[in-house]
Q: What sequence folds into this?
């Protein structure tokens, strides 16, 4: 079954070459107990290592079941060691941090045997060597003889064809030696056992065949075999260790060094804690800045108003009226300037194209948009018996801003708190806006038909309050030249109860958020612009509007319009038409930028409209917020980067530290590497074992770092609140946490990579010799 053909092997150290095997020719039987005797240095161990595939021969051939090993690759040798041969060493070579069962299972673990099968085979083998009582012990808790029995059980469990024993009783007393020899002899009845020994008596008593070595040659063979019987079906199954096994192996190793691992994890987590805290603070400050910015922009939206407007040019954003060449000129001259010219008088004329241009604004930079129209929607309130118009002079009725893509709720829910009820789901639903004290002016309450004499009103009594919207043709009736409200008395209950009215109701009560302070919507009633559009759509074809378009007097009062055109308060036909709902174009458009960067983008966009237009066609906007400067997020980013760079240094330190720790671990586990290799582990598997160790340490330190950072944000927030009044500034973004965990993991694996590679390159014979 096993044939050594002229095997030669020599070692060169410096200039000196030592021939260890000098042409060995031996044929072995399938099952026999062969003892190799010889003086020290005669090449016995080398021969055993060559047979076991731990060491490679220089020339000749090792034939296993008729198969030459000349062209064996590394992986073939690994598989051969795992499937066909097994070693029993003088110094037992058990893995100290694994229990007896785990040690016995290791060879099978490498060959991928299922865990149940592996376990039962291991228990059987341990029973066979008489150690069933001790299966959960660690090797250090056993006597020498017991340890050698475990090594024999490990050899048996994998069911190899060849067992190679290198002075198995060398470290044992004579009585224990005999017991071990009995055990080996028993095994040899079914397997090929090759044992190297210094003890000729043991060889005589137990071995079937004794071979003598001298100077690397066979000088005597008690029972040579001439012809080989070949088992043609011989095939080697490749081995592979799963990452889970590697993790388990390293986990158990780490468990024996809990303190060292814990300290390493703490030390290497410091960098992660630093970066996590910096990120959570900058994240929090960024949020505070942007909420402060959008809060202040909420009170100063960009506005575009139709008609003639007079304003200071520094508020109009556009600079087409600017005279000076630029601020901070270099010239040594004083320039004259006319302050009166700074005042801009311009007539903005809205067109449908302009309205569409506005609607195409990027919704990311625009938090909300609102249109105010000077339309007088005919809204009636009623107590059941009487009805009257809601007096728009007493209560603010405004349209609430919406997202440009039409989602009103997201704008409102960003800046307002819903105190009761729901956000409007249709244009028929209205919102009641209260100030930060939950107040509403008594005259507004009266106008809305609420109990203004009461000191307080419960929310539930307001939610669901109904109003009626009356369309122009129902609301106005013509009497000769003029129009008046279609009712015989001051009580408009008939009009209120008419069929063609539109029901409106208050669906919710809102108040501006605390961080926003005062906000865009004044206390009063807020409706959606869709309601106004619906009303106007109907009103523009109504009789009163048609009559007003023709008449040169106010059809509601009969008054002739005044000629004076530059009086901004004069009642003009356009104004009356607008209040009657003749114009689909709004009076004012308010744009609420998301932040200062967003504002810059919007102003550029608005300037874009004016490009290539004549001055009188241009549309100018008012930018009240130009008076407040935005805090630059850039400064924050800069500081964050510098701080991260500092914290990164500690990460590099931990990278080096992990490298050193893994290196020490490789040194400590040299013997284990040898055992694993002897059991058939591939180089890759050894790398895997150490990579698994760094993965465990990296994950621990990453998780620890994030946990510590998270815990530290609590006192940091308390201190910051105390010092600055800002609440909840430090806030770790979960995405950053995941990112940092990945960084910690990659850095530790990187740090351990070189030592892990070193471990895999170790010569198994030398590794086994390590103390
Ligand atoms: N890795 C090595 N590098 C250099 N020389 C080596 C190496 N391994 C073995 N040798 C040499 O090869 C020769 C054979 O050594 P080997 O260990 O096989 O002898 P042995 O018969 O097993 O001896 P012992 O009974 O003392 O264990 C010795 O002279 C030894 O010094």
A:
């Amino acid at each position: 079954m096993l044939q050594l053909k002229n095997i030669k092997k020599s070692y060169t150290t410096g200039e000196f070459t030592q021939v260890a095997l000098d042409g060995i020719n031996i044929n072995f039987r399938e099952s026999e107990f062969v003892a190799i005797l010889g003086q020290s240095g005669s090449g016995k161990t080398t021969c055993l290592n060559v047979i076991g595939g731990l060491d490679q021969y220089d020339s000749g051939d090792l034939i296993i079941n008729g198969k030459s090993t000349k062209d064996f690759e590394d992986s073939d040798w690994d598989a051969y060691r795992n499937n066909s041969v097994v070693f029993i060493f003088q110094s037992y070579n058990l893995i100290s941090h694994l229990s007896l069962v785990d040690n016995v299972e290791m060879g099978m673990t490498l060959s991928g045997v299922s865990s149940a099968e592996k376990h039962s085979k291991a228990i059987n083998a341990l029973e066979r060597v008489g150690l069933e009582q001790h299966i959960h012990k660690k090797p250090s808790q056993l006597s020498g003889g017991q340890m050698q029995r475990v090594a024999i059980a490990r050899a048996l469990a994998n069911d190899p064809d060849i067992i190679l024993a290198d002075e198995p009783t060398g470290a044992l007393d004579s009585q224990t030696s005999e017991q071990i020899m009995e055990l080996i002899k028993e095994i040899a009845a079914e397997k090929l056992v090759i044992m190297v020994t210094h003890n000729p008596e043991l060889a005589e008593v137990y071995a079937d065949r004794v071979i003598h070595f001298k100077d690397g040659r066979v000088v005597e063979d008690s029972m040579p075999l001439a012809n080989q019987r070949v088992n043609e079906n011989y095939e080697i199954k490749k081995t592979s260790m799963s990452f889970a096994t590697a993790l388990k192996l390293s986990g158990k190793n780490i468990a024996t060094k809990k303190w060292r691992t814990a300290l390493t994890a703490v030390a290497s987590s410091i960098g992660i804690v630093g970066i996590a805290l910096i990120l959570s603070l900058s994240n929090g400050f960024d949020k505070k800045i942007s909420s402060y910015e959008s809060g202040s922009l909420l009170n100063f939206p960009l506005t575009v108003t139709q008609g003639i407007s007079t304003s200071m040019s520094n508020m109009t954003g556009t600079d087409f009226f600017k005279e000076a060449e630029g601020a901070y000129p270099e010239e040594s001259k004083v320039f004259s300037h006319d302050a009166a010219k700074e005042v801009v008088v311009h007539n903005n004329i809205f067109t449908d194209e302009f309205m569409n241009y506005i609607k195409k604004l990027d919704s990311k930079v625009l938090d909300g948009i609102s249109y105010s129209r000077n339309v007088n929607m005919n809204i009636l309130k009623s107590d059941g018996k009487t009805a009257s118009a809601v007096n728009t002079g007493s209560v603010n009725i405004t349209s609430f801003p919406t997202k440009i893509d039409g989602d009103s709720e997201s704008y409102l829910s960003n800046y307002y708190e819903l105190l009761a009820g729901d956000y409007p789901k249709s244009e028929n639903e209205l919102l009641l806006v209260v100030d930060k004290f939950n107040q509403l002016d008594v005259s507004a309450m009266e106008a809305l038909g609420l109990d203004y004499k009461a000191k307080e009103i419960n929310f539930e009594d307001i939610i669901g309050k109904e109003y009626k919207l009356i369309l122009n043709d129902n609301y106005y009736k013509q009497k000769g030249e003029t129009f008046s409200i279609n009712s015989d008395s001051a009580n408009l209950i008939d009009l209120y109860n008419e069929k063609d009215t539109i029901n409106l109701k208050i669906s919710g009560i809102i108040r501006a958020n605390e961080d926003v302070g005062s906000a865009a919507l004044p206390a009063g009633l807020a409706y959606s612009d869709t309601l106004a559009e619906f009303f106007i759509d109907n009103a523009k074809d109504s009789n009163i509007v048609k009559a007003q378009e023709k008449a040169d007097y106010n059809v509601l009062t009969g008054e002739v319009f005044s000629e004076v055109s530059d009086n901004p308060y004069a009642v003009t036909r356009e104004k009356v038409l607008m209040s009657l709902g003749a114009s689909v174009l709004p009076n004012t458009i308010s744009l609420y930028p998301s932040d200062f960067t967003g504002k810059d983008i919007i102003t550029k966009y608005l300037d874009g409209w004016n490009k290539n237009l004549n001055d009188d066609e241009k549309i100018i906007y008012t930018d009240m917020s130009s008076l407040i400067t935005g805090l630059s997020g850039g400064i924050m980013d800069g500081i964050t980067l510098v701080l991260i760079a500092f914290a990164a240094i500690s990460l590099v330190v931990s990278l080096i530290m992990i490298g050193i720790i893994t290196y020490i671990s490789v040194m400590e586990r040299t013997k284990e590497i040898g055992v694993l290799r002897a059991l058939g582990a591939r180089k890759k598997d050894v790398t895997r074992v150490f990579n698994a160790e760094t993965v465990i340490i990296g994950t621990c330190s990453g998780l620890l770092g994030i946990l510590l950072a998270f815990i530290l944000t609590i006192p940091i927030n308390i201190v910051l609140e105390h010092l600055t009044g800002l609440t909840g500034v430090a806030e770790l973004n979960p995405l950053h946490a995941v990112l940092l965990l990945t960084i910690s993991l990659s850095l530790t694996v990187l740090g351990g990579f070189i030592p892990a590679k070193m471990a895999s390159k170790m010569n198994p014979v030398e590794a086994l010799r390590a103390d």
